[in-house]
């Protein structure tokens, strides 16, 4: 009997030991391995509140503030901490319906019951004030401070860009961002995101069962301070930008203005455009959809992305290349009989004096002269074939920045198009094409495509007599910063400085010459403007008006390209707009009010009908 009870004692001890081991193992799993309960406990006692830094401010080249921040607030919720409350009063404060409330709560629960998620983004200061007074009534909810971008003037939307919420792809790629964070989506905001965004901080608070903050956790030992973003000084003259957008109202096209000596962009106008304040805050998504659906395409950045035939402005390039290749000379004379004629081929031209030398050919924009020059370039006996000469011709263009992205510090730049030898081989057969086959390239037509940025850069190169700096829109990062070394490097095009002089003589004559000159409407008595008109053929409607120029002739301060779609000859609208921009920038005021009124009052619709 005694032995039997002794066996039971050992059995009971074994059962207790096994139970103790199971309990210890379970506690180890709960406390060490499984973090669910720890997170729940922490969420019930601690509230980490992200401290979002203010984004860096953006100034224009003269120190005028153009982008700043305004306080905003996000309402967050931790679903597991919510309990019954007066939803009607809650919805009244926020201005939402009961269905909207349920939908938002459903989204928060599906994201996580135990971690905070955004219930409503960017509530106003007024709503925030009302909510704070009654926050104790709404367990599980709290407010987190944010900032919104604001703009001092409703201009430069494409250049400045906008800020939007990060997407899932970026969250997977960059651990700095969390769901609900904001990032630069376009323009300067995107290109300089790392500089502008600053560094996030966090404050950890103790909260009671009623969701009320009781103080900092561990006296703030684990808190980190948000570091504001770095301020940027852009190269833009915001007053000139505003004036350019004013001149382009009711027109489609672009204005690009560059300071030749530095490559700094003074103005980058795209028209139609939009007020950058439309893409800020809770209205951003709705307004973006409206802008995206607009048939005039206000979101399309024509300055960097539109590829146009350069038209007669491109004759400058063929003149320079011909001089460098020594196949033409400033005194070369070519006749024009209302165009260039070769067998059955005719490239028409307007009536003017004949024959002309290079200077007069530029001033009067003679098609025949430049067809002869282009043919001389491609039939140069120094090369083994027309195709070899074409390759060299193309190399000069690439050195000027055509056919490739220039590398501006803005996203979405496109390269334009300069056809290659293989391109024509595919169409006409290998080496079975000649100069006359592609003669339209002589006058900037055919397959050539160039962006307004590239054309303004060409004008800057001519102003510099053969060199350029990559165009850029940020002058310095931080109070004592400087541009990237990339934008301080001088590029040489391969055209000798002396070969620019006869072309510049012609450009001066185009604006300041006699009755045959094509750009006399751009003349400015106090300043010598050197320019070239162009008319780009448009298969979809009326031709595009183009003008490139720089001023003054000596020590140039400004280079410009203007495109006005469906506006006809370059002298009609593009040249007057460029001339007004030059006058505004170099003199500080426009005195030719008659010319300004003419431009401002003219409406040019996309279907090419003038009103």
What keywords describe this structure?
five-stranded antiparallel β-sheet, elongated, Beta-lactamase, single chain, 21 helices, alpha+beta, 3 domains, Penicillin-binding protein 2a (Domain 2)
Secondary-structure blueprint:
Elements (H helix, E strand, L loop, with lengths): L1 H32 L2 H10 E6 L6 E2 L5 E13 L9 H8 L3 H14 L5 E7 L1 H10 L6 E11 L5 H4 L2 E3 L2 H6 L8 E3 L2 H5 L1 H5 L3 E7 L5 E4 L15 E3 L3 H10 L5 E7 L4 E8 L12 H10 L8 H4 L9 H10 L14 E4 L2 E4 L9 H7 L2 H12 L7 H14 L21 H8 L23 H12 L3 E2 L5 E4 L13 E2 L7 H13 L17 E7 L7 E8 L6 E7 L9 H14 L5 H9 L10
Parallel strand pairs: 2-10
Antiparallel strand pairs: 1-8, 2-3, 3-4, 3-5, 6-7, 8-9, 10-16, 11-12, 11-20, 13-14, 15-17, 18-19, 19-20
Helix pairs in contact: 10-20, 13-15, 14-19
């Amino acid at each position: 009997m005694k032995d039997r009870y002794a066996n039971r004692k050992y059995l009971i001890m074994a059962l207790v030991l096994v139970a103790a081991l199971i309990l210890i193992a379970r506690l180890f799993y709960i406390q060490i391995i499984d973090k669910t309960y720890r997170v729940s406990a922490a969420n019930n006692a601690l509230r980490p509140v992200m401290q979002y830094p203010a984004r860096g401010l953006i100034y224009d080249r003269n120190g005028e503030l153009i982008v700043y921040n305004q306080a905003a607030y996000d309402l967050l919720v931790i679903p597991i901490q919510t309990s019954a409350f007066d939803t009607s009063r809650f919805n009244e404060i926020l201005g939402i319906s009961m269905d909207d409330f349920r939908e938002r709560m459903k989204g928060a629960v599906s994201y996580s019951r135990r971690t905070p998620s955004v219930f409503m983004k960017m509530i106003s200061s007024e709503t925030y004030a009302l909510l704070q007074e009654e926050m104790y009534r709404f367990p599980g909810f709290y407010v987190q401070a944010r900032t919104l971008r604001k703009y001092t003037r409703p201009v430069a939307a494409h250049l400045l860009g906008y800020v939007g919420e990060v997407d899932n792809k970026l969250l997977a790629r960059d651990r700095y961002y969390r769901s609900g964070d904001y990032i630069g989506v376009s323009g300067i905001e995107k290109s300089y995101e790392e500089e502008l965004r600053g560094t996030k901080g966090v404050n950890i608070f103790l909260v009671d069962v009623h969701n009320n903050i009781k103080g900092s956790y561990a006296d703030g030992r684990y808190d980190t301070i948000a570091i504001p973003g770095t301020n940027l000084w852009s190269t833009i003259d915001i007053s000139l930008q505003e004036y350019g957008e004013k001149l382009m109202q009711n027109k489609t096209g672009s204005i690009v203005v560059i300071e030749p000596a530095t490559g700094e962009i003074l103005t980058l106008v795209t028209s139609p455009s939009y007020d950058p304040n439309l893409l800020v805050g809770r209205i951003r998504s709705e307004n973006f959809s409206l802008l995206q659906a607009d048939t005039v395409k206000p979101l399309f950045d024509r300055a960097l992305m539109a590829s146009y035939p350069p038209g007669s402005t491109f004759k400058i390039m063929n003149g320079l290349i011909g001089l460098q290749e020594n196949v033409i000379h400033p005194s070369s004379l070519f006749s024009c009989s209302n165009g260039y004629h070769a067998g059955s081929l005719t490239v028409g031209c307007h009536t003017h004096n004949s024959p002309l030398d290079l200077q007069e050919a530029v001033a009067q924009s003679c098609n025949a002269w430049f067809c002869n020059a282009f043919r001389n370039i491609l039939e140069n006996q120094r090369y083994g074939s027309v195709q070899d000469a074409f390759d060299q011709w193309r190399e000069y263009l690439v050195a000027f920045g055509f056919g490739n992205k220039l590398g501006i510090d803005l996203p979405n730049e496109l390269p334009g198009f300069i056809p290659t030898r293989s391109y024509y081989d595919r169409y006409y057969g290998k080496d079975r094409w000649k100069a006359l086959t592609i003669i339209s390239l002589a006058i900037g037509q055919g397959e050539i495509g160039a962006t307004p940025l590239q054309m303004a850069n060409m004008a800057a190169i001519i102003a510099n007599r053969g060199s350029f700096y990559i165009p850029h829109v940020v002058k310095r990062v931080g109070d004592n910063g400087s541009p990237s070394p990339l934008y301080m490097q001088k590029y040489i095009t391969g055209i000798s400085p002396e070969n620019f002089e006869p072309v510049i003589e012609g450009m001066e004559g185009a604006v300041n010459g006699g009755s045959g000159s094509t750009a006399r409407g751009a003349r400015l008595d106090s300043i010598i403007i050197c320019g070239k008109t162009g008319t780009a053929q448009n298969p979809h409607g009326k031709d595009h008006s183009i003008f490139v120029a720089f001023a003054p002739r000596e020590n140039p301060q400004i280079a410009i390209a203007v495109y006005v779609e469906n506006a006809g000859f370059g002298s009609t609208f593009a040249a007057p707009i460029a001339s007004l921009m030059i006058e505004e920038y170099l003199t500080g005021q426009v005195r030719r009010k008659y010319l300004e009124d003419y431009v401002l009052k003219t409406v040019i619709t996309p279907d090419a009908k003038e009103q």
